[in-house]
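Inputs:
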Amino acid sequence: MNPTFVLRANERGHDVISSDGPTSSYVAGHPGAFITRESSFNFHQYQAGRPGFGPIRVFGDETFHGAGCGYNMHPHHNFVICAFVLEGELTHINTAGEGTVDRLRQGDYYVFSAGSGGKHCELSISPEDMNAIYLWVLPSQLYLPPSYHRGHFDLRTRRNQIIQLVGDADGALPFPQDLRVSRLVTDRKGAFAYAPRSAEHGLYLFVVDGTLTCGDATLGRRDSLGASGVKTLEFEAADATDVFIVETAIIDDDRVRAWEKEQAEAS
Amino acid sequence: MSEPLKRWICLGCGFSYDEALGLPEHGVAPGTRWADLPEDWVCPDCGTPKAQFEMVVIGYAPGGPQLAQTA
Ligand SMILES: [Zn+2]
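Outputs:
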């Protein structure tokens, strides 16, 4: 089974957001700090990409550079926002519930459902770069009570198996949408299969590191693919491969179809 | 028959605009159509331009409309 689309690392949207100048109130850490953001889908200034995948609107690969870099306190509604920390340390201050000051390191992740309104601030305090994968998803209902959950993926003990981090599996963080995020980290070559709940569920696979082969497609570091209408997606992962697998309901998506048609006509 | 009233969501922050509710706190009367908001209207929470809102068909959680009216 071949993927429906392949998105190469260098085809993603690329933004550099400075803590100086017009974005200084938004980005913390002036002087010298800046955020780099690689977007798989349309986001902010980057509006040339695929409009999303099912209810997913943002899949961002972001790095905070420089001591004190991050996003100042800002509001959200409705979106369910996840961050999966790959490197460095993320200090996350969040108003949901009683409020939280959280510190997330490699393998840690959070799910923040902004619902009826919440604010958060995200900072990398040390001079070390902080790299995280961000996901923004439309919720199943508007104005849910805001919530914050955090989890940890143990990279050392949970190798060579697909582990669900977010969704309805035991131990996964709850998520107010028909969506599951899993992760696979290998230390040997292997063949894997992922069966979505139904043919109406799509899969988005993002290679953090390593090499993944699926049908005719070979993906390297930060390449990704989408597949929909599949019973089972089979793939091979090389030694030292790290992959996120997102499964979600592909709700009637006119925007994506219009975009795909435009792309086909332009080529 | 008139078009059903719609809901729009800001892709910058998730702020939602509901035609039925308007935004009385921001001077927009209930029943104001999306098309009737000025083209230079921006998200009251994050400044994202009107063009970067998306129409959504998503229902409210219990109590949501009351909270949305005063957003
Ligand atoms: Zn906004």
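Remarks. The pocket of zinc ion is lined by residues B 10, 12-13, 15, 43, 45-46, 48 (CB under 6 Å). Chain B touches chain A at residues 7, 9-16, 45-46, 52, 54, 56, 58-61, 63-65, 67-68, 71 (CB under 8 Å).
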